[in-house]
């Protein structure tokens, strides 16, 4: 049996971040074992952030090529097979550069490829191509990630479907697609494929798309209008009840608020959330508690019910699944495992982005959350019609909403629906994190013309009518 100072189960964002941080904290003096079941890099680089944003970027460029500017005419053609080949090439390059080659810098880290399960509180058994191995760790970090959750819909398993893990294996663009789930994943992929030429229908069980409490309802409703303007069919407060097949066609029956609907499509994308990859870890043998869905229960230090075991990333019980959070949690878990429980995470200033077009970005409290906490709220919405840059690029869809606590004047929430929202939300993060007062934001000069100026204009709208403001007025 091989013994390690630190044993990491998982080789995605949280696992790599933990290995790197632990090596840095100890100057490479501790021996680390990293057990990897799948591809290095986990969800994000292989089937998540990287391929989805690549596809979105191409779809957006194709969409813009058909948009008319006075005096400018463009044309573009799509070769879906080549697009997917290019996507696979980028995935491979980034996996090699950001994960495989990175490991070469850490000679204290052993990579063990195989499927791990606990056999004792500090020991695991790994099934590798060469047989079984037993490993032990003085401290252990679990970062096994998650997988798509599949709802129990009659006929779905027999008919077949794709998920956010398998959509990247498509060889041809589906003529028609039904997306089950109106969250970030479903909307991002759905809009991208629609822009490339698919006829897309989205079915969401809640009363709005992006139903997460982190997003303002106004954003959900406005985005619905924009997506429908592009030709997507969106059913909210609706449920897929049965799926069947007629020849090569998949037939989907939907209960909607207007009655039963029958939709015929070439393909079905299931995007109804994710589940942790903890089912076969033997957590009970290590005394590690989970919730009913299998998520590992951790305290504020990311320590499990087994004091030598920490957990991070998508496999822990929390409300946000983000690659950036997984990496941050991996760093925290490694720090606390090595230095003692000294650090915690402030989730309240985590930015959340949905890469639709226009993009959605949020940080901090929503209006509803502030009302529940303080019983009072001061909010303003500034439409992009008032932002010169939006007019220049020909896209005034969206708005910026600022949530301010009137008791002390601090900005506690920033919510954006606009082009480039993902690029400007970090100003919102700094405003919320540093408890910046509204008057300080108003007094801060912003670059003109930019989309980021919309944040200042939203702040100015608390004290003056934006329709009566000239450009760059302070």
TrEMBL record:
PROSITE patterns: PYRIDINE_REDOX_1. The keyword Phosphoprotein does not apply. Gene3D superfamilies: 3.30.390.30, FAD/NAD(P)-binding domain. One of its GO terms (molecular function) is NAD(P)H dehydrogenase (quinone) activity. Its cofactor is FAD. It catalyses: Hg + NADP(+) + H(+) = Hg(2+) + NADPH. Residues 4-330 form the FAD/NAD(P)-binding domain. Keywords: Disulfide bond, FAD, Flavoprotein, Mercuric resistance, Mercury, Metal-binding, NADP, Oxidoreductase, Redox-active center. The keyword NADP applies. Belongs to the class-I pyridine nucleotide-disulfide oxidoreductase family. One of its GO terms (biological process) is detoxification of mercury ion. This is Mercuric reductase. Homodimer. It is an enzyme of class 1 (oxidoreductase). Transmembrane segments: none annotated. InterPro entries: FAD/NAD-bd_sf, FAD/NAD-binding_dom, FAD/NAD-linked_Rdtase_dimer_sf, Mercury_reductase_MerA, Pyr_nuc-diS_OxRdtase, Pyr_nucl-diS_OxRdtase_dimer, Pyr_OxRdtase_I_AS. Residues 350-458 form the Pyridine nucleotide-disulphide oxidoreductase dimerisation domain. SUPFAM superfamilies: FAD/NAD(P)-binding domain, FAD/NAD-linked reductases, dimerisation (C-terminal) domain. It comes from Saccharolobus caldissimus. Its EC number is 1.16.1.1.
């Amino acid at each position: 049996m091989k013994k390690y100072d630190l044993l990491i189960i998982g080789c995605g964002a949280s696992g790599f971040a933990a290995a790197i941080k632990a090596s840095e904290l100890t100057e490479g003096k501790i021996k680390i074992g990293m057990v990897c079941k799948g591809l290095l890099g986990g969800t994000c680089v292989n089937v998540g952030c990287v391929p989805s944003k690549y596809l979105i970027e191409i779809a957006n460029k194709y969409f813009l090529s058909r948009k008319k500017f006075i005096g400018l005419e463009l044309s573009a053609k799509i070769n879906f097979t080549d697009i997917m080949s290019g996507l696979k090439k980028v995935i491979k390059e980034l996996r090699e550069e950001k994960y495989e080659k990175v490991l070469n810098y850490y000679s204290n880290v052993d990579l063990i490829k195989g499927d791990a399960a606990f056999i004792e509180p500090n020991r695991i058994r790994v099934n590798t191509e060469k047989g079984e191995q037993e490993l032990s760790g003085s401290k252990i970090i679990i970062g096994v990630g998650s997988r798509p959750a599949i709802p129990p819909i009659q006929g779905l398993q027999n008919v077949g479907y794709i998920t956010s893990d398998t959509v990247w294996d498509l060889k041809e663009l589906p003529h028609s697609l039904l997306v089950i789930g109106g969250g970030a994943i479903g909307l991002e992929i759905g809009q991208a494929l629609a822009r490339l030429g698919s006829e897309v229908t989205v079915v969401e069980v809640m009363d709005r798309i992006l139903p997460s409490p982190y997003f303002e309802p106004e954003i959900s409703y406005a985005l619905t209008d924009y997506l429908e303007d592009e030709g997507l069919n969106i059913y909210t407060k609706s449920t897929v009840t049965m799926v069947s097949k007629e020849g090569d066609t998949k037939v989907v029956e939907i209960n909607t608020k207007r009655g039963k609907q029958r939709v015929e499509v070439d393909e079905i994308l299931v995007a109804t959330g994710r589940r942790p990859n903890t089912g076969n870890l033997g957590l009970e043998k290590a005394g590690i508690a989970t919730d009913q869905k299998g998520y590992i229960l951790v305290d504020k230090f990311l320590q499990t019910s087994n004091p030598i075991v920490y957990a991070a990333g998508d496999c822990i019980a929390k409300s946000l699944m983000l690659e950036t959070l997984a990496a941050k949690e991996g760093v925290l878990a490694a720090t606390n495992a090595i230095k003692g429980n000294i650090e915690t995470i402030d989730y309240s200033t985590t930015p959340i982005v949905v890469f639709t077009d226009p993009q959605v970005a949020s940080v901090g409290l929503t209006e509803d959350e502030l009302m529940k906490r303080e019983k009072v709220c001061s909010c303003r919405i500034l439409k992009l019609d008032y932002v010169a840059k939006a007019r220049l690029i020909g896209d005034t869809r969206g708005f910026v909403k600022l949530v301010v606590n009137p008791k002390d004047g601090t900005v506690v929430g920033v919510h954006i629906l606009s082009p480039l929202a993902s690029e400007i939300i970090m100003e919102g993060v700094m405003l919320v994190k540093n408890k910046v007062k509204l008057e300080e934001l108003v007094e801060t000069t912003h670059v003109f013309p930019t989309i980021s100026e919309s944040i200042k204009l939203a702040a100015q709208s608390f004290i003056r009518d934006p329709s009566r403001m000239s450009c760059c007025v302070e």
